[in-house]
Write a structure and sequence with these properties.
This protein is an alpha/beta fold. It has 14 helices and 15 strands. The protein has helices spanning 15-18, 20-24, 43-55, 65-79, 94-105, 121-128, 149-156, 187-199, 239-242, 257-270, 276-288, 290-311, 338-348, 374-391, and strands at 30-31, 88-91, 111-116, 132-137, 139-141, 144-146, 169-175, 203-207, 232-237, 250-253, 317-319, 326-330, 350-351, 353-354, 365-369. Bound molecules: pyridoxal-5'-phosphate (PLP).
Length: 392
């Protein structure tokens, strides 16, 4: 395990590097955008995959009992939440899971609540399901984002001129930990928001894909809060934790039997059987890679310190992430338009995710992915510094 090791990813058809030209219009950029890591996955995962590949037959597969047991044990050990193996449903990713859940629980024309700025596919998941986005913006308070609970209550109130029963809000999408602002929601916050949503009759679909990248605080699965268990589901995966996004495997925990049946029915008509290599990788990850995760978190914390130190000498404010390996940077004091900011960074040779992609309230921000070898991060920060110097 060597997180400093630079591995050439160009030429592997990876979105992060090989997709630069298509997305940003040039190739000679250092990429800090899409949320995958420039680290190789743990050796145990690679060995398990090699063994499975050597078998040579890749027919339809299903999750082994061992994998379900490992998930169950992990959820108990990490969060003290007792789940049943039957509650676990496999999907080819968390985004597909969000779409399946939205389709299973809402009808076209319904409204779905999200809290922005948020991982941009939340918007398309809702819109592509024929539903309408109801946006409750998070509030930036003393450098830390919090939920606007009054705003959230307001989302459920009838709109002027519409009689209450005409409004159909059946679901709320929660991002926990929250991408891009890096919050690891506290129990009190989850309880308060959850009560508002659930008391109003909504079901909560909680995207917890970043739940194992915790830099500070403690992750609490939304459905582990007893009063919410039957009114919510959580979507998890090994893909962020162990860098397995390309293996298209995630799992959803759905305690409510009726909702689970509906979810599985919708899933089976929309997406393929689980990816055999994804199942193999996840099993190996949960079986034997916690030592690697610990080392990863320590490396990421050091990368974050580097970022904080660097920007403390500039006008750019770092919104310190408590979870995720994504850093939300506030460039607003520079007074640039989104286009000027984007162009300055691209001219400087770095590709970040522009804040406005995460909702209107993300304007003036950029998201920096710090899951890369330190030398690459140093070079990227240097390039950002030079790009800013050029402007002023
Ligand atoms: C909050 C969140 N959800 C989902 C995903 C993607 O999930 P998947 O690749 O499993 O569809 C990401 C990836 O960045 C993410 O940040």
């Amino acid at each position: 395990m060597d997180f400093d090791k630079i591995i050439e990813r160009r030429g592997t058809d990876c979105e992060k590097w090989d997709g630069l030209k298509d997305l940003f219009g040039k190739e000679d950029l250092l990429p800090f955008w899409v949320a995958d890591m420039d680290f190789e996955s743990p050796e145990e995962i690679r060995e398990a995959l090699k063994k499975r590949v050597d078998h040579g037959i890749f027919g339809y597969s299903y999750p082994s009992d061992r994998l379900l047991e490992l998930i169950k044990e992990r959820i108990m050990k990490k969060y003290g939440w007792r789940i049943e193996k039957e509650w676990i449903v496999l999907t080819p990713g968390v985004v597909p899971a969000l779409s399946i859940a939205t389709r299973a629980l809402s009808h076209p024309g319904d409204e779905v609540i999200l809290q922005s700025p948020v991982y941009y596919p939340f918007f398309s998941v809702i819109e592509n399901s024929g539903c309408h986005v109801v946006e409750n913006e998070l509030t930036l308070k003393n450098g830390r984002y919090v939920m606007d609970l009054e705003g959230l209550k307001g989302c459920f109130r009838p709109k002027k001129g519409i009689v209450p029963k005409e409004r159909r809000i059946k679901t709320m999408l929660l991002c926990s930990p929250h991408n891009p602002v890096g919050r690891v929601w506290e129990r009190r916050e989850l309880e308060e928001a959850g009560r508002i949503a659930i008391d109003s009759g909504a079901f909560v679909i909680s995207d917890e894909i970043h739940c194992e990248i915790i830099l500070k605080g403690r992750h609490i699965p939304f459905s582990s809060i007893p009063e919410f268990e039957q009114r919510s589901m959580v979507c998890m995966s090994g893909s962020k934790t162990f860098n397995l996004a390309g293996l298209s495997t995630a799992f959803v925990i759905i305690p409510n039997e009726e909702v689970r049946k509906s979810f599985v029915g919708t899933r089976d008509s929309l997406v393929p059987e689980p990816n055999v290599l994804g199942l193999t990788a996840l099993e190996a990850a949960f079986e034997s890679c916690d030592y690697w995760l610990e080392a990863l978190l320590s490396y990421l914390r050091d990368n974050l310190e580097l970022v904080k130190r660097f920007f403390s000498r500039t006008e750019v404010k770092v919104i310190e992430p408590e979870g995720t390996y994504l850093v939300w940077l506030d460039f607003r004091s520079l007074g640039l338009s989104d286009a000027e900011l984007r162009n300055a960074l691209l001219d400087g040779g770095v590709a970040l995710d522009d804040g406005y992609l995460f909702g209107k309230c993300g304007s003036g921000f950029e998201r920096l992915n710090i899951a890369c070898p330190r030398a690459m991060l140093e070079e990227g920060l240097e390039r950002i510094g030079k790009a800013l110097e050029k402007l002023f």
